[in-house]
Amino acid sequence: MHCPAPLAWAVAATLVQFICSMFIVAGFYTLIIAALSGVAPGGAILRNLLSDHDPKLALLYKLVAVTLACVGGGRFSLDAFVLSKPERQPANGVQK
Question: pLDDT at position 36, please?
């Protein structure tokens, strides 16, 4: 694809995909991490299109990342556990 520093880009893409996938499995910072990991399949899609290969798998990865970036991790994710606020009870102990 004639990009400058292909080894550096390959290492960066590999690290992003490896680290981001761990965060997504844990459900930690899902929106941000899924958006970041959605960038990496763009290069694979372009590479497949330029070399007349089928880009379906790369498109599937992109679709999953975009869906997670839009929807989030859900109620069983680490985000939901960390960011949830416990319900406060009144100081006098009387519940409504």
Answer: 87
Tell me the CA distances in angstroms from 94 to 86, 89, 90, one per residue in order. Answer: 17, 8, 6
- Cα angle for residues 66, 42, 23 (degrees, 5° grid): 50
Distances from the Cα of 74 to the Cα of 19, 45, 47, 52, angstroms: 20, 28, 33, 38
CA angle 44, 49, 52 (to 5 degrees): 120
Query: Is this model's pTM higher than 0.85 or not?
Result: no
- Give tens-digit pLDDT for 15-61: 888 998 899 888 888 989 998 888 888 888 888 898 999 999 989 98
Q: Where are the domains of the chain?
A: 27-74
How many beta carbons lie within 10 A of that of residue 78, not counting itself?
A: 15
d(CA 6, CA 16): 15
